[in-house]
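Complex 461.
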Amino acid sequence: MSPSAIARTSTSSPTLDSTAKLTKAGTESILSQTQSHNNSRKIPAVAVVADLDASKCTVTRTASPKPVPALDSPEVLSQSCTTDHMLTARWTEAAGWEAPEIKPYGALSIMPTASVLHYATECFEGMKAYRGVDGKVRLFRPDRNAQRFLQSATRIALPGFSTAEFRKCLERFVGVEARRWLPASEHERFVYLRPTMIATAPALGVQRPKEALMYIIAVLFPRLDEPRTGLAAPTPDGTATSSAGPPRPAMNGTTTTTANNNDNNNNNKKGMRLLASRHDIIRAWPGGFGNAKVGANYGPSLIAQGEARARGYDQILWLFGDEAFVTEAGGSNFFVLWLNEDGERELVTAPLGDGTILEGVTRASVLDLVRARGDVKVVERKFTMHEIVRAADQGRLLEGFGAGTAFFIAPVSDVHFRGLDVVFPLGKGERADFAMGIKDELKSIMYGRVQHEWGVVVDEL
Ligand SMILES: *Cc1c(COP(=O)(O)O)cnc(C)c1O
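Predicted structure with pyridoxal-5'-phosphate bound:
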């Protein structure tokens, strides 16, 4: 073999970069098949199986609706309070999607051999339905959640579906639950929606699942973004806010009364406290699945989250690589506002593209809003913890915040990084006006204070 032949062979072994591209190519090819099937432009070579069809959805109302608890009740705090109904839709490889059903909330029955229980074939979405100041119920950019749900499902070999039909199912479900669970008398209230898909095929073979179940449930959440409630809960799309004071819900459904065991626990603590991840625990990597909303991203992260809690922090700030690239904060995207090296006010967040960042709907909305406003420079690029430390040292660090559905926009007070406490101005008693301004703008859309195409009104049934 000539030296050049050897060189060619060795460069063809997968690198992180080429793996990311392969994964992307695989997902895209499956998605394009789904899409063309949805548009029925092509006659599929295989037998035609049924797509998801919201018009076939049946509704069986519960005969015994639950009392709706107060938002500060223990049941709500534990994030276990589901509404009266759920929507389910079964899929089989042979027949496709069966008619969706809205029916009383209750246990699922799956076999111990179900794929999801062994191979983590599960993906989900997190979104909210809001009762607006005008009495209408809205979803926020549901098209984005529908598209991401399809992409996550595709990444783990779960079946595709028409995103338009999924949205209709979702709206139908919200329409059924809204009257009782988002009382029209109480403006500015929301329920959290959790669309989920699992592979239910009862067989241990490691293969594409032949049966799946899509379901949608709704959960009452306390008002997590209001500092006076003093709550903090880690969920896959939220970040904690303040943590002193009353009991706070935890990921495992238990409630702890002392939030920060070893901090000074002052009641006026405002910001989220972050613990930077150690180099030996990585949330996501190029070519992995950090960009898909799959349960497999969360189980392995709980140990680090637990450590953060035990040490008095709210969330982990996930770093990547020897360079200490900043990726996400807990289950939310992460933004920094600073004066860049050229002295310009700049909003920075990690870029999409290599599979390490989940494309949050909140992230996209922050970027869109700030770009439209044009008062600060907006960049999506890789940035490191060292850059944040330098900005702090030079007095250029302005604000940091997490962005996700459950907690919205959560300003950061400090980050602990390898023995260093990096304190944001908020942690020194200043205000996070930039983050709070964005939060207000988003809230206005969600609660219908302004009419905006991102706020989609749902008909109540
Ligand atoms: C869901 C999620 C987010 C936030 O996404 P939103 O659509 O804004 O709620 C961010 N990071 C991760 C890892 C997530 O799972």
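Residues 16-38 form the longest helix (23 residues).
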